[in-house]
Amino acid sequence: MTTPHELEDAVIDAWPPAEYVDLDGWGLRASGGPTKRGNSVATLNAGKALSLDERIAGAEAFYRERGQPAIFQVGPAATPAGLDAELAARGYRVVGETFAAIADPSEVVARVSRTYETSLATSASDAWLSHAGHTSRFRDAYEVFTATLARLGTRCRFVSARSARGAIVGTCLGIASEDRLGIYAMLVVPELRRRGVGKSILRALAESALSERMRELYLLVEEDNSVARALYAQAGFQELFRYHYRISE
């Protein structure tokens, strides 16, 4: 049975930042770009050398030196105890409420059908990069996106869905973490949302996971994305835990 700590560890591992500094077990991450995941404190494994005040001060100094706000990722396995309450008391506000969900790939295959042609590759085509990078939230930080892909290397699975005329209508990034496959950066053209593109992509990733003998799929979806949450529930994903970020004002 997957624990929240195990999955949070996989999530941290699946999005390697441009810069990583260990602060007595905490991971200080800085990458630039739009994602909080690559620009926040990973708070799983706090050591005992620093007090909570000292470690928060150290994190704040790290981000201040880089001209970024201090952001802390806080989930059920965050350490030390009392971190979330302390950040709240210091005026850190909550952003990015997120669900982490898992599924058996065979269950996903059984639940969803492929209505669009899909392809999966271990290297990104120009067409995939154009859609996934230039038309997404990374459009103003394209180099940050491609640098993350380069750090991931052979762990990436690049999925494309195409229309009957061959145009890309959806893309997604699968990231392998030992016996898990994470589902990231799903992007469907607006006019075809709720038309089966997402399901076709999920099936392709589930089939890939089965062929590679991976036991689990996982994904992260923000609480306010009700359309995506409904899709993933239909596909057999079950919530394992929730997390959020605390950001300095």
Can you tell me about this structure?
Helices cover 33% and strands 30% of the residues. It has 8 helices and 11 strands. It has helices spanning 4-13, 52-65, 83-89, 105-111, 126-134, 142-152, 197-211, 226-234; strands spanning 19-23, 26-30, 41-42, 71-74, 93-103, 117-121, 156-162, 168-177, 180-188, 216-222, 238-247. An 11-stranded mixed beta sheet has the order 1-2-3-4-11-5-10-9-8-7-6, sandwiched between helices. The chain is globular and about 60 Å long. The N and C termini lie far apart (38 Å). 38% of the residues are buried.
Please outline the helices and strands.
Elements: H1 4-13, E1 19-23, E2 26-30, E3 41-42, H2 52-65, E4 71-74, H3 83-89, E5 93-103, H4 105-111, E6 117-121, H5 126-134, H6 142-152, E7 156-162, E8 168-177, E9 180-188, H7 197-211, E10 216-222, H8 226-234, E11 238-247
Helix pairs in contact: 4-7
Low-confidence stretches: none
Question: What would the CATH topology of the largest domain be?
Answer: Aminopeptidase
What is the number of beta strands? 11
Major sheet attributes: 11 strands, mixed
How much of the sequence is in beta strands?
25-35%
Calculate Rg over CA atoms: 18 Å
Order of helices and strands: HEEEHEHEHEHHEEEHEHE
CATH homologous superfamily descriptor of the largest domain: Gcn5-related N-acetyltransferase (GNAT)
Fraction of residues in H or I helices: 25-40%
Q: CATH architecture of the largest domain, please?
A: 3-Layer(aba) Sandwich
- Distinct helical segment count: 8
Number of individual domains? 2
Residue-averaged pLDDT, rounded? 95
CATH class division of the largest domain = Alpha Beta
Structural class: alpha+beta
